[in-house]
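Need 3-demethoxyubiquinol 3-hydroxylase's 3D structure for a figure. Predict it.
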Amino acid sequence: MSEIRFRPFDRLLLSVDRLLRLLPGAPAPASHNPADELPEAADLTAAERQKAAALMRVNHAGELAAQGLYLGQSLAARSPQTLSRLRSAGNEEAAHVDWCRARLRALGGRRSLLDPAWFGGALAIGTLAGLAGDDWSLGFIAETERQVEAHLDGHLRRLPAGDQRSRAVLEQMRRDEVRHGEDARRAGGRELPAPVRGLMRLASRVMTTTAYRV
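Structure prediction for 3-demethoxyubiquinol 3-hydroxylase:
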């Protein structure tokens, strides 16, 4: 069966649809939330709930940024195969946004006030990565997911022990991110130059540090 080839206008419509699904009150992605299998912790202290909410705010901001990256890369993807991979991974990342948002509500937390900036900046970066070519775009995904994996490992260590629902969400997110990175490498993603990897780590550190508080 031949690959579906999307014209630029088709890609724009798909991107608008994805944006609308990220708005508050939009229908949640059809994906099982791993937190639903566990009871809400009743013995978390106020400080523990505040810490867990701050960590989940960072993860929500990161997943929202991931949506921006995938959208930008999708707009500039050259092959139907790359576009299909980006859309598939982006759909899973959209579920991550919903899971993090649900945990924020349950913990009494709020979203980052800078969410539009995280998304907009990531959209621009993703578009640039896509314009560099599919092999570089896939390499960008692989490196992004490698850094996200390390980030999630750190959050799993910092998360209050009693918050098993947030832990279940982060563990499933980590498994998905690892698979996305491996898929991108197998599809021909190129290793990014060391200075680019360093800039990515710096940008991630700025976002995570700021979103924790703002």
